[in-house]
Amino acid sequence: MPKNKRESLIYTVLMCFTMVLWMSIYNVAIHQGELSLSVLKDAWMGLPIAYVFAMACDWFLVSGLAKGFAFRYLVKPGVSSPLKTVIAVSSCMVVPMVIIMSFYGAAETCVRTGQWSPVLFIWLTNIPKNFVMALPFQLLIAGPLVRFLFRKAFPEGCILMEAAQPEM
After folding, report:
1. Three-state DSSP class for 35?
2. For the whole model, what pTM was predicted?
3. Which of 16, 66, 87, 141 is close enough to 93 for a disulfide, judged by CB 3.0 to 4.6 Å?
4. Which pLDDT value is given to residue 167?
């Protein structure tokens, strides 16, 4: 897990990319009814805007609320095991992100079709579909993979919170 703001930003960039890419592929595949090269192309083409939106929501809204909830009600920093802390924080991040990004997907669908009347129905039906994929993917695949790659690229303690102050 990240130890400071800089590590947190780098970790969030990696995790958000992994989750948005996978969930984009998943949602396009559900919509098209198959997994094909066309699905991968469509998911990749929609990725940049979805990624920027997800990053902004994660960094400025969800992260603080999710960690606050997890550390207040589920785990105690420094007391709970690292595994329990990771599971609690990851789960608390997935729930609001699924709700927000499911709405994003519903709005994107309505923009493409030009019909806004089904936006609420699409959003509410997307939430459970996305949740059953996002939570296991986050806990079992994306989380461990991104944590492994993050610590390989940035061993603990190599990213400083503040630049060293030159002595006079």
Report:
1. coil
2. 0.89
3. 66
4. 52
